[in-house]
TrEMBL record:
Catalysed reactions, as listed in the record: glycerol + ATP = sn-glycerol 3-phosphate + ADP + H(+)
Broad enzyme group: transferase
Keyword Aminoacyl-tRNA synthetase: no
Pathway the protein acts in: Polyol metabolism; glycerol degradation via glycerol kinase pathway; sn-glycerol 3-phosphate from glycerol: step 1/1
Family as reported in the entry's similarity comment: Belongs to the FGGY kinase family.
Binding site for ADP: 13, 17, 262, 306, 407, 411
InterPro entries, per database record: ATPase_NBD, Carb_kinase_FGGY, Carb_kinase_FGGY_CS, FGGY_C, FGGY_N, Glycerol_kin
Species this chain originates from: Micromonospora mirobrigensis
Alphabetical GO biological process terms: glycerol catabolic process; glycerol-3-phosphate metabolic process
List of residues binding ATP: 13-15, 262, 306, 310, 407
Keywords for this protein: ATP-binding, Glycerol metabolism, Kinase, Nucleotide-binding, Transferase
The organism's place on the tree of life at top rank: Bacteria
Molecular function per GO: ATP binding; glycerol kinase activity
Protein name: Glycerol kinase
């Protein structure tokens, strides 16, 4: 029997999903389970990697059952994952040595200052495309080596293994210890040009090479799965934002997408050469197909967008479901002069200020929960505007259209406001789960389920488009107020 489907596992920040796609790129079935967010102290965020693995097995089982198929009907499975989240596990037992440290975690701030003195931020940026920020995986690994008893000695003996979530899942599925170039490019340990672990950086970070995974292409067969997916090739791995770029079929230089999930991430394909940013963006690997040169991207990473709506729901109790935020925000005509800057883990692009913390600015007795809800949605758009301004300053051609995806794009008010503040058309993919779609596309390419990139481009469809209607003078006034609110977040942490 010829396999008719490809599956994608999306191991995200708040949940794990499995989606089954057919040859037309349509969703056949899906399953999803949330996992715990562990906050041991302010600024620390952890996950239980064993809980995540259990959830992944459950969603795979549920998605296959919902599709009415067994693993023999799958041509391949691809993996996409929350990037930078760091796991170390015992090579012999397969058990994590500690909770995973999540990308949002800020505990490595003091270590980054030490690294700046010893190595220098400019040198690191030139080598890796990254800025010195608590976001990335290498310093999280160093923290574990320094703080888990005996771990450094065990790492030097090769008894423990490091990986981001893609490596953890590939190892659990196949027993292979590998990662792909997109995830490796987020560690602060890989040279962007050689696409290999950099001995100088390993030495500066004091990371033993013996614990690192092999770096492979994004679309390539890594091994064959056991267990629930027995016999299925595991054939792709992409960090979630690169997977969304791939799923949006942004294969040409100058094409860009923004994914609105827990955080939001705008990636611009820059082609076969890395482009250094002078305006607070990251240079990263977009993807690499087996046998082909890599593609690079500029990225603007925003830490808090969808999770701000969750905060409004879970911490303040102003809404009972995330979907209610739009109705509440539409109950008022504007934000009433109120601005929410969600620097919960510092500010990411283009500011990169780990000392920042969130503020609600412009409060008066007039402000209602409707104004707060509107300011929460507007925060996602204004943060995107800051990234787009930086991207336009770095690239040769100004952004003329933005493809969007992710759960928040179902919010029509947010999409309207986004088009207003960017003053460019905002186009939503018909399949909003483009992160999973990108992982599926890459896996399918690796095994010949789809023949080439042109075939994938032909399948892409939009289902909605928004254009700017805001008066330019109002846009500039609101932007000025937003920037004032951002300034109020700075220098909070000593």
């Amino acid at each position: 029997m010829t396999p008719e489907y490809v599956a994608a596992i999306d191991q995200g920040t708040t949940s794990s999903r499995c989606i089954v796609f057919d040859q037309a790129g349509e969703i056949v079935s899906a399953a999803q389970r949330e996992h715990r967010q562990i906050f041991p102290q302010p600024g620390w965020v952890e996950h239980d990697a064993e809980e995540i693995w259990d959830n992944v097995q459950r969603v795979v089982r549920d998605a296959l059952a919902a599709a009415g198929i067994g693993p023999d009907r799958l041509a391949a499975v691809g993996i996409t994952n929350q990037r930078e989240t760091t796991v170390v596990w015992d090579r012999a037992t397969g058990r994590p040595v500690a909770n995973a440290i999540v990308w949002q975690d800020t505990r490595t701030g003091p270590l980054l200052r030490e690294l700046d003195r010893a190595y220098g931020e400019q040198r690191l940026r030139e080598r890796t495309g990254l800025t010195l920020a608590t976001y990335f995986a290498g310093p999280k690994l160093r923290w574990l080596l320094d703080h888990v008893d005996g771990l450094r000695e065990r790492a030097e003996r090769g008894e423990v293994l490091f990986g981001t979530m893609d490596s953890w899942l590939i190892w659990k599925l196949t027993g292979r210890h590998v990662t792909d170039v997109t995830n490796a490019s987020r560690t602060m340990l890989m040279d962007l040009r050689t696409l290999d672990w950099d001995p100088e950086l390993l030495d500066a970070m004091r990371v033993p090479a013996a614990m690192l995974p092999e770096i492979r292409c994004s679309a390539e067969v890594y091994g064959t799965a056991d267990g629930l997916l027995a016999g299925v090739p595991v054939a792709s791995a992409l960090g979630d934002q690169q997977a969304a770029l791939f799923g949006q079929t942004c294969f040409q230089p100058g094409e860009a997408k923004c994914t609105y999930g827990t955080g939001s991430f705008l990636l611009l394909n820059t082609g076969a050469s890395p482009v250094a940013s002078a305006h607070g963006l990251l240079t990263t690997v977009a993807y690499r197909i087996d046998g082909q040169p890599p593609a690079y991207a500029l990225e603007g990473a925003i830490a808090v967008t969808g999770s701000l709506v969750q905060w409004l729901r879970d911490n303040l109790g102003l809404i009972s479901t995330a979907a209610e935020v739009e109705e509440l925000a539409r109950s008022v005509d504007d934000n009433g002069g109120c601005y929410v800057v969600p620097a919960f883990s510092g500010l990411f692009a283009p500011h990169w200020r780990s000392d920042a913390r969130g503020v609600i600015a412009g409060l008066t007795g007039y402000i209602t929960k409707g104004h707060l809800a509107r300011a929460v949605l507007e925060a996602s758009a204004w943060q995107t505007r800051e990234v787009v301004d930086a991207m336009n300053a770095d690239s040769d051609v100004a952004l003329r259209r933005l493809r969007v995806d992710g759960g928040m794009t179902a919010n029509g008010l947010l999409m309207e406001f986004l088009a207003d503040v960017l003053d460019v058309p905002v186009v939503r993919s018909r399949i909003t789960e483009t992160t999973c779609l990108g992982a599926a596309y890459a896996a399918g390419l690796a095994v010949g389920f789809w023949p080439d990139l042109a075939t994938l481009r032909e399948q892409w469809r939009s289902d909605a488009e928004w254009t700017a209607r805001m008066d330019p003078a109002l846009r500039e006034r609101e932007l000025r107020h937003w920037r004032k609110a951002v300034q109020r977040t700075l220098d909070w942490v000593d």
